[in-house]
Amino acid sequence: MSLFSAKVLLNLFLFCAVLAHSQTPKSVFDSQGMVASRSAIASEVGAKILASGGNAIDAAVSVGFALAVTYPSAGNLGGGGFMVIRLADGQLIANDHREKAPEKATRDMYLDAKGEIVDGLSTKSHLASGVPGTVAGLIDVLKAYGSMELAEVIQPAIDLAKDGFILDEDLAGQFKRRLESFLNYPASLKVFSVDGEPYEPGDRFSQPDLAGTLERIKLAGKSGFYAGETADLIVAEMKNGGGIISARDLEDYESKWRRPIMGEYRGYKVISMPPPSSGGVLLTQMLNMLEPYELRKLGAGSSEVIHLMIEAERRAYADRAEHLGDSDFYNVPIEMLTSKDYARERFADFDPNKASVSADIFAGVAAREGLETTHVSVIDAMGNAVAYTTTLNLSYGSKIVVNGAGFLLNNEMDDFSAKENSPNAFGLLGRKANAIEPGKRMLSSMTPTIVLKNEKPLLVTGSPGGSTIITTVLQIVSNVIDHEMNLAEAVSAARFHHQWQPDRVIHEKTAFSDTTKVELAKMGHKNLNEVPAFYGGGIGDGNSVLSTDIGFQGMADPRNDGAAVGPSTLNAD
Ligand code: DON
């Protein structure tokens, strides 16, 4: 047995001992496949698809539709997402179904006459929404690489919307906390409250309008969303609320096939999302900067490793602001940014004893609203793997449900740079590369990632968390490859994050020991801030799958509810 697998088993044993006392097992094993997501119901939907002979693509698409019903803060029909796929025959594919700016969008649409950003316009209004991409993406992916019919994989979502499901404390609590933000929108209130009163845990939650929309998609495919009744309802919603998405915008929407970013790190291949996400480029860039250093020897959690990672993050996020945007509109220097030579040059000024200073503008603006995006990892026994991250941007998107259609609209337009060097909700800066243009896709941080070992899927991972997504994935990947942690440890390990501007490190409570904090401060890392309550007390939600000698290990991030479910686990029920 290799040292790696011996360590995996030992860690597994330790972790199982802990889990013996926990109600919801977060880490499970199954040799037949695995689905890990933020919604236990949706993970079960996916595992059932695998159990009935579907492949990982069928399962991921089915989970995608189910999440729109069971996890409405981020699962969606009215948003967008990215899927990175490794097929059993070795092909590597990425599907981009990111929202795009409507044709009537303009560069300065969120600025007032004085050129200042109008607060809330890009997050809490009908103008906040990009043209939704999820339905096109899920259907295109299924058609190209699934083995089942749309009618089969969408049916669980229809049943869950029509018949409803019992609300747990997590979801009922979310609806209650959000009630105020739905007050202005009767259609939203209709879905997420009982005549204006909050839902309670134990209540049945059904969504007849959403079931209707899903039925139309089942019958007509993409036209069930981008044309006919659903499109009419979206356009009517826009007209009533002063939005600009038109019938033509919907009709023209297409998901795009992209060549994934393919990085290499210590002999492993790291496959991730290209622009319009910044995720794959930055992940590769940071791994390249770290590769010359012996992280394993320096030790996980040591001030040396944390310092190295912070400095890599600082440089990569500075590049993000300058160079990253939709590559169909802006010439993103992908080859340069992801090359080992560039990383060496970019990191040449790294001082092992001293923090550098993020010069330029101090943005200093923290995120203003609750977070939500969600990540699903799926693997099957045939060798297909899917990393899928999907979002409405902020929690429950714009909070606006399309009247009569039952789904929420995204507020993804906020991911554009509304004004040069002005922070978005995540404090991220941008310039020309990410300026608003009609039809352009806003820059994302979503980082669905598959790590290959000897050309076979080893790790499937990703996370929500806005700007913290990329550093969360970086830490999970490094925990597995550098620190040889098993998946439970790699996902549970406390996290930290730096994004160049604002010049501060945010960290989970236990990420740094007292000694490490003192050492980091000595190096000049002055702003070490415990993660703001806004992030829900944690960074990221890395639902992941790892291939091990004893089967696929699935792990739902312990920071939140959710579950990993395998097809045999289901059969055993
Ligand atoms: O695409 C992006 O980078 C953001 N819209 C993601 C938002 C997000 O992760 C919010 N939640 N946790």
Report what the structure shows.
The protein has 20 helices and 19 strands. With 573 residues, the chain is of the alpha+beta class. It has a seven-stranded antiparallel β-sheet with strand order 1-18-17-13-12-9-8. α5 packs antiparallel against α8 and α12 packs across α17. The protein is globular, with a radius of gyration of 22 Å. The chain starts with a helix and ends with a helix. The N terminus is likely disordered. Bound molecules: 6-diazenyl-5-OXO-L-norleucine. 6-diazenyl-5-OXO-L-norleucine (DON) binds next to loops.
Briefly summarize what is shown:
The chain is of the alpha+beta class and 573 residues long. It is 37% helix and 15% strand.
Tag the structure with descriptive keywords.
single chain, seven-stranded antiparallel sheet, 573 residues, binds 6-diazenyl-5-OXO-L-norleucine, disordered N terminus, 20 helices, globular, alpha+beta
Give the mean pLDDT.
Answer: 92
The portion of residues assigned to helices is: 25-40%
Structural class: alpha+beta
Q: Give the total of beta strands.
A: 19
Please give the largest β-sheet: 7 strands, antiparallel
Name the bound molecules.
Answer: 6-diazenyl-5-OXO-L-norleucine
Topology:
Blueprint: H1 3-19, E1 27-30, E2 33-37, H2 40-51, H3 56-70, E3 80-86, E4 92-97, H4 134-145, H5 150-163, E5 165-166, H6 169-182, H7 186-192, E6 204-205, H8 208-220, H9 223-226, H10 228-241, H11 247-252, E7 256-258, E8 261-265, E9 268-272, H12 279-290, H13 295-298, H14 303-323, H15 334-337, H16 340-346, E10 374-380, E11 385-391, E12 449-453, E13 456-461, H17 468-481, H18 487-492, E14 496-497, E15 505-507, H19 514-523, E16 528-530, E17 544-548, E18 551-555, E19 563-565, H20 567-572
Parallel strand pairs: 15-16
Antiparallel strand pairs: 1-18, 2-10, 2-19, 3-4, 3-11, 4-7, 5-6, 8-9, 9-12, 10-11, 12-13, 13-17, 14-15, 17-18
The chain binds 6-diazenyl-5-OXO-L-norleucine (DON).
6-diazenyl-5-OXO-L-norleucine (DON) binds at residues 371-373, 391, 393, 412, 415, 444-446, 464-466, 469.
